[in-house]
Fold TonB-dependent Receptor Plug Domain.
Amino acid sequence: MTEIDPLPPSRRRMFATASLASLMVAALAVPAAAQVQPAPANPAPAEPVQALPGAPENGPATIAPEAPPQSEDAGPAPDIVVTGSRIVSSGFAAPTPTTVIGAEQLALNAQPNIFNTIAQLPSLQGSTGVTTGTNSTSSGSQGLSSFSLRGLGTIRTLTLLDGQRVVGANVTGVPDISQFPQLLIERVDVVTGGASASYGSDAVGGVVNFVTNKRFKGVKGNVQGGISDYGDDESVLAQLAFGTSFLGDRLHLIVSGEYAREEGVGPGGYGEEGPAGRDWYTTATLVNRGITNDGAPQFNYREHAQAYQYTRYGLINAGPLQGIAFDANGQPFNFNYGSNGVPRRNTNGDVAGCYVGFCIGGDLSGNVGIGTTLKSRLERYNGYGRLGFDLDADNEIYATVNISQVDTSNQPNPGAAQTSLTINCANAFLPSAITGLCAANNITSFRYGVTNAILPNIEVFPSRKQYRFVGGATGKVSGFGTDWRYDAYYEHGENITDITVNNMLVPRRYLQAIDAVNVNGVIVCRDPTARANGCQPLNIFGGATPSSAALSYLQPANGPFQHTRQTQDVFSANLSGDPLSTWAGPVSIATGLEYRHEFYHVTSDPYGNGPLPGTPYNDLYPFDPVLNPEGNNWYAGNYHSGRGSYNVLESYLELNVPLLNTPTLGRANLNVAGRATNYSTSGTVYAWKVGGTYDTPIDGLRLRAVTSRDVRAPNLSELFAAPIAVTVPNFTDPFNNTSVTITQNTIGNPNLRPETARNTELGVVYAQPSWLPGLSLSFDYYKIKVRGLIQAVSAQQKVNFCQQGVTELCGGFFLQGANNQGNFVDVQPFNLASIRTEGFDIEASYQIRQPLGLPGRFTVRGLATHVINFVTDLGLPGAVPVDSAGANSGNTPSWKWLTTETYTQDEFSIFFQQRWFSDGVFGNQYVVCQSSCPVSTANAPTIDFNRMKGAFYFDVGGSYTLTKALNAYFKVDNLFNRDPTPSPQTNTGVDINPALYDIIGRVYRVGVRFNF
C-alpha cells in the first residue's frame, strides 16, 4: 500500500483546529481508508481503536484520513484499525465492503444533524427522518432518525455506538441518531453487507457504527444557523466539548453538550396551497375509471384531481340533493365538479363525466393533502461524558453516560374529514332552502361530506428521553505466546417516549353534536343523554367558528396520550488474538459472548385504551355513556396499554486463516464466522459467514467474496405490540363496492419466528497502483434473499385477498356497521413474505496534489448503487411478487449516486456535491397502454402513464480559516431549488415521496467552529 506523505505537524494542527481535518479526503465516503499508524512510544491504553469497516486493505480508498482534531497537548493518537469483522489484526483484510465517513466530511456537509449526511449514501435506502412519517398520528416514528441499508428497513440495519448496542427509541428497537453525542464523532463506519455472524441479530442489511474520539483534549465547539429559501425551516446548532487528563495522563475526562433546533416546514392550506409559497403541489392522483375490460386503461394519471365526496365547508354527496355545497357563510350553491361532471343524484353518489371518486379541476378548495406537515419540527438536547482510567499502558477501565432528549411535532392532516354522514333534514342549522328541498323531494335525511375545516387541526408531540450508562474494560493481555485483545462492557439504557396529541376529535361525540334540534328556541343536541353529559351542538354547514364549549366536548384538552418505557441491558465480552501462525501468516481468532434483555411497558389514556385496571376514567377523562367503554374513541391515536420482554444469549467464533502469501502469487485469506443465538421467545437460531480476499500479483488489484446466513428475530413491537387503533375513512369494501369508514387495529403476534437471510457479495478493488497512487476503484455485486419475512398485509390488502378467495385472511374484520359504527379490520404480522434483491456498488476516487501547479489538493470521489431488482413476495395464494426496483414512489430507485469535489489549501476550501437518482415509475405492476389494453387485473392493472422523473441536486460549501483556532464556513443545499416530482396516490393525499425527493428546497447555512 503506497503512503501519501503526511503534512508537517504544524500544518496538520492548523487544519485540525479548523475542525475540517485538512479536508484531504473531501469525499462523503472513504471506503476502508483508515491507515494503520505506527505505534506511539507511549501508546493509549488497550488495543487499537476498533471500528466496523474494512482494514487498510479492505477497500479502494487511497487517502488516509487525518487524525481527529486535537489540541497541541493531546498526546499521541491511538492506532486506528478498521475492520468489517471482529478480527483485529495487523494486515487483516475483511471480505465485506465497507465505507468510512470521517469527521472532516461531517463538517463539510454542515448539517444540523449528523444523520442527514450519512443518509445521503447511495446504499442507504429507506431511512427515516424528519420529512418521513409526518402524516402519522399513531406510529410513534415521527422525527425518528434511523438508517436503512439496501432498502430492507430500519429494523434490518444494526446501528452501534463505539461497537456497542444502543437502546431503541421506538418499540421496533431502532435507535434515534439524534440522541447520539454528535460533536465527538470521529468517523462513521458503514458495513454494506450481512454481518449477523460477527455482530449479532438485525445486521441483515449491514451495520452502521459511530466511533467517538476517546482521547480528545482541549475545548472545541460549533455554532451554526440555517434557513430555507422560503423563509422557513430555521435551524440553530450549538455544540461544545471539553477534554482533559489527570494523574499523569492516566485519568481521562471528556464531556460534551449539544443543542439543536430545526423549525421544520409546516402544512400548506386547502386545495393546492403549498406552505410558504411552494407551488409544486398539484394533487397528482391515479384515478380509477372503474372499467377493466373496454380496451382503455383502468387507471389514469391526472393532476388537479378533486374528490367529490366532500368539500371544505360541506357537500351533499348522494341522493336527490347531490351537488349542493355550502360556502363559508353557510349559504348553499351548486358545486363545480370539474370534468364537466354532473351529479347522478343516486344513492351511490355517482358523478357523470368524472372518474370513480374524482373529477379533474373545478372547485379544489376541499382537498386536504397538502395540509400535512412537510418536515417535522425537531429540538434536541444531548449531554455526554466519558471517564477512563489507564490501569497501565495497555489496559483501561471506563464509564460513559449519555443523557438526551428529542422533541418533535407535526400536523398529520387538517381537521378530520367525514365522507358519509347522515344528516337529518330537521337539523336546526340547515338553511330553510335545504329544508324546503327535502320536503319537495320527500326525503328526511341525506348523505353529507365535509373536511371539518372549522375544527382546530390535529397536532402530535412525541418526546423521547434517553438515559444510557456503560461501564467497561478494554485492553490487551499476554498468554499462550501471543497478545490477546479484550473488550467487555455492561450497558443499561432506558428510553422514555411520551406522545401527546392535541385537537383530536371524538367521533361518537361529533355525531351527537352535529345532530342538532331546536328546543324552545334554543339549538341543542338531539340526544338528551348526550346533552346531560355535556354535548354542545355543532354547525357543519359553512365556516362558522364553533363555540369553545363545543370544541371542549368534541376535542377534549386531554387528548390521546401514550407513555412508553423501554429498557435494554447488555453484557458483552469479546476476545481476539493471533494464537498461531502458518507459513502464510498469523491465524487470527475472535470469540465472544453477549447477554441482552429487552423490555417495554406502555400506558395510555382511557379514551383510547378503555378503562382497564390502572387507567380508569377520572376527572381528566370523565365517563361518558356515549363513548365505547372498550376504548378506540378517538378519530386517531387510539393507543393501548401493553408490555413485553425477551432475553437473548449469544456466542460467536470467528477465524481468519491466511492461505497464501508470496511475492509472485499474491496474498489470500479465508475468513469464517459462526454465531448461535438463543431467544427466550423463539428459540435458537444460527448465523454464519464464509469469505475471503485475494491480493493478486497485479499491482493494486484485489478480489473479495463473502456469503453469509444472517438473522433477525422479531422485535418487541412485532411480538407484543400494544394495539393501535386508527380511523380509516374512504376504505373500500370490495364485497359491496362501497366506501366505508373503519377502525384499523394493529396488534402483535407472539408466535413469530426469526427471519433468515442469505447474503452474497463479490467484489474487485483496484487501489493505489504504483503508477497512479491517488486512484481508487471498487465494484461489488450483492444478492440478498430474506425468508420468513415478518410483515403484515395492509387492511385493504387483507380484505381484498379475502374477497378474492384467500380464506386464511377472512377473519378479523367487520364492514357492515350502521353509520360505520363497529367497522374494523385487524392487522397483524406473520412470517409469510420474502424479499429478494440484487445490485452492485461502484466507488471511485482520485486525489491530486498541487493541481495545475496551485498549492493545496484537489479530490474527487463518486459512489453509486444500482438496484437490479427488489422483489417482495407476500407469500399468499394468488399474490404476485412485486418488483419495486426503479419505483420512485418507494425507496429503491434503479440508480443512485453521490459525487464530491473538493479543493483545499491552508486558508480556505471549496466543496461541491452532487446527488442524483434515475428516472423511474410509479410501480412496476402497471401495464402501460393507451388503447387495445388487456383486461386490467389487481396484479397487473392497466394505466395510461407510468413514469417518475429522477432528480439531480447540487450542493456547494466552503470554509475560511480566520485564525489558528477559528474557522468560518457556509453551505447551500439544493442550490438550483429543484422541486419534487409528483408521486401520485389513489387518493388526494400528499403526492410527494420524501424518502427520495428533497421537499424543502434551497437551504442556506453558515457557522463558525473553534478548537483550542
Q: What stands out?
A: The chain is about 5% helix and 45% strand. Residues 9-17 form the longest helix (9 residues). Residues 275-375+413-459+505-561 form one domain. Confidence is low (pLDDT under 50) at residues 1-83.
